[in-house]
Write a structure and sequence with these properties.
By secondary structure, this protein is of the alpha/beta class. About 30% of the residues lie in helices and about 20% in strands. The strands form three sheets. It has a nine-stranded mixed beta sheet, with helices on both faces. Strands 4-3-7 form a three-stranded antiparallel beta sheet.
């Protein structure tokens, strides 16, 4: 502690950084590790594991397919309307991960076919097409007068700022470790390293999966440039694009944690045909990224260095459900929150991504599993619930005993949920019947994980 304060004071007096950021020496053993130069002088450490296995090719069966046809309308006041059209995803086709259908959990953003003579309460609105929108109940005793309906409709008669129409059909198949065309990508967040995925890497390696886990620049054993521009969202996203293009197979599953979720979202949006499924662990809501102007991370690097013991303690308290010797050892063993003050400040200040708003997320047609730790103090559960509402095909799972670092706290629960999601596929609709049979979704058998709901737009 005293050494940290002295280094910080020396930094402030001399104007030099207390912890000089230099490229990491690439002297680590090559067993499973590779060093990839994504740009000249920009080197990332990557753990790439290909297990010895008897390869099973992609199954030739029909699998399950989901028709995605939706209209996304953005008005100038920021209102977002999402309409699922035609043969969009139906509750009877898709089930929550506990294997039971939950049609009552469907979030209807807009009703395209309202009743012929509806009566509405004061909270209900009518758009220009006659659709009923809002949370008002339909029934006797809540009727609105004609002038009220006319006034509400007039408020909605305005030109949209932007309209996006998506019409596609995705084939969703089970991804087993013995399939040669399947690869798993794990992406950590701010202050982490590839070591935080140790339990997941070991688990899926034993199941025969090919696993790719990079260190973000400035983290772990990757190089650490001395300019802040090297740590912007766009710079990091291009790093992940280079890693993805280098190791991608035909079917790729992306697993991100915290800030790493943003890069998985970026790749899923950029490469919809190659990204098969996505897992978002405590990633937050579907909002555009913008650094806070009133943040402790805007302080000079030397002051942050003086405060590093307090920041580490705060991270331990907010990132784990329990703060004890076990959790402290997990941080130490997994090289978590062990970055320089310069990198930490640059990473937090570089989180600028205006394109990543609700519309951007609503355009994604990839099946997504949302995992949330109940005691997460960084990301409120409401943010993940909002994310599940915006995404077309999303399953939200809450782990009761976990917090922000849930994959380290509850590895068995997380591994079980992930594996079941990898194997999940919707049943193909029988041609001989007018309606689809119930889909067989994976069952969350681990007692530490409970199903919050299957939340999606209809």
């Amino acid at each position: 502690m005293l050494t940290t304060l002295m280094d910080g004071l020396l930094c402030c007096l001399t104007g030099k950084s207390a912890n000089v950021v230099v490229p990491i020496e690439t002297s680590e053993p090559a067993d499973g590790y590779e060093f990839v130069e994504v740009k000249p002088g920009r080197v990332l450490r990557v753990r790439h594991v290909i297990p010895e296995r008897e390869v099973e090719e992609e199954p030739s069966g029909p699998g399950g397919s989901v028709r995605c046809k939706r209209k996304i309308t953005v008005y100038r006041n920021g209102q977002l309307l999402i309409e699922n059209l035609g043969d969009a995803v139906r509750p009877e086709r898709l089930h929550a991960l506990n294997g039971e259908a939950e049609p009552n959990c469907t979030v209807e953003v807009e009703l395209a076919d309202p009743p012929s003579n509806p009566t509405l309460n004061s909270d209900t609105k009518v758009d220009k097409t006659g659709s009923v929108v809002g949370t008002g109940e339909i029934g006797a005793g809540g009727a609105a007068t004609a002038p009220d309906l006319t006034q509400q409709a007039r408020k909605r008669r305005r030109k949209p700022k932007r309209t996006v129409v998506i019409d596609s059909e995705r084939k969703i198949t089970s991804c087993k470790g013995t399939h040669a065309d399947v690869a798993l990508f794990f992406v950590h967040g701010v202050g982490g390293s590839l070591d935080i995925w140790g339990s997941q890497l070991d688990f899926f390696f034993r199941l025969g999966y090919e696993v790719i886990v990079p260190d973000l620049v400035g983290h772990g054993a990757s190089s650490a440039p001395q300019i802040a521009a090297a740590y912007t969202f766009y710079a990091l996203a291009e790093d992940m694009r280079a890693i993805f293009k280098r190791y991608a197979r035909k079917r790729n599953i992306l697993i991100g944690h915290s800030y790493g979720v943003s890069f998985c979202t970026f790749l899923a949006h950029e490469y919809p045909d190659q990204v098969h499924k996505v897992v978002m662990i405590n990633g937050g809501g579907p909002t555009a990224l913008e650094p806070s102007l009133c943040s402790i991370f805007n302080l000079p690097t030397c002051i942050l260095h003086c405060l590093s013991p307090c920041l580490s303690w705060s991270f331990l308290k907010a990132g784990f459900a329990h703060q004890g010797a076990k959790e402290k050892q997990l941080l130490k063993d997994n090289n978590a929150f062990n970055v320089s003050s310069f990198v930490l400040r640059a990473m937090m200040s570089g989180q600028y991504w205006p394109e990543g708003d609700e519309v951007y997320h609503a355009e994604i047609t990839v099946p997504i599993l949302l995992v949330h730790g109940m005691y997460d103090k960084f990301v409120p559960v409401e943010e993940d619930q909002r994310m599940a509402e915006i995404l077309l095909l999303a399953f939200l799972k809450i782990i009761n005993e976990g917090s922000h670092m849930v994959m380290m706290e509850c590895p068995e629960s997380v591994n079980t949920l992930l594996h079941e999601f990898f194997l999940w596929e919707p049943d193909a609709a029988p041609k001989s019947k007018p309606r689809s049979e119930t889909a067989n979704a994976p069952t969350a058998s681990n007692g530490g994980a409970t199903s919050e709901s299957q939340v999606k737009n209809k």
